[in-house]
Amino acid sequence: MFINIDYNGANLYQQIYREIIALIIDRKLVEGDQLPPIRKLAEEYNISGNTVKNAYYQLEVEGFISSQPRK
């Protein structure tokens, strides 16, 4: 998954959150698609796992994604 991150910009978790919403709206992510695991996305973009976790949590709270642990 490719997302744009401005490391000098606003909160990184908000950037990830907005990028994933854009992928959903553009139908590049559809129901049933899996997001990368938190650890993998964090390593890929050289950011904290907590940053990715916060973005995923916000997406889940707002109903954009659902979580299935260890899937």
Question: How are the secondary structure elements laid out?
Answer:
Blueprint: H1 12-25, H2 38-45, H3 49-61
Helix pairs in contact: 1-3, 2-3
Structure commentary:
- With 71 residues, this protein is mainly α.
- The protein has 3 helices and no strands.
- It has helices spanning 12-25, 38-45, 49-61.
- Helix 1 crosses helix 3 (49-61) and helix 2 (38-45) packs across helix 3 (49-61).
- It starts with 11 loop residues before the first helix and ends in a 10-residue tail after the last helix.
- The mean pLDDT is 92.
| Low-confidence spans | none
**N-end to C-end Cα span:** 18 Å
The number of E-state strands comes to 0
Percent in strands: under 5%
* Radius of gyration based on Cα positions: 11 Å
Query: Would you list the SSEs in sequence order as H and E?
Result: HHH
Structural class call reads mainly alpha
Largest sheet: none
Query: Which geometry do the CA atoms define?
Result: globular
**Helical run tally:** 3
Helix content: 40-55%
Mean of the pLDDT scores? 92
What tags apply to this protein structure?
71 residues, mainly alpha, 49% helix
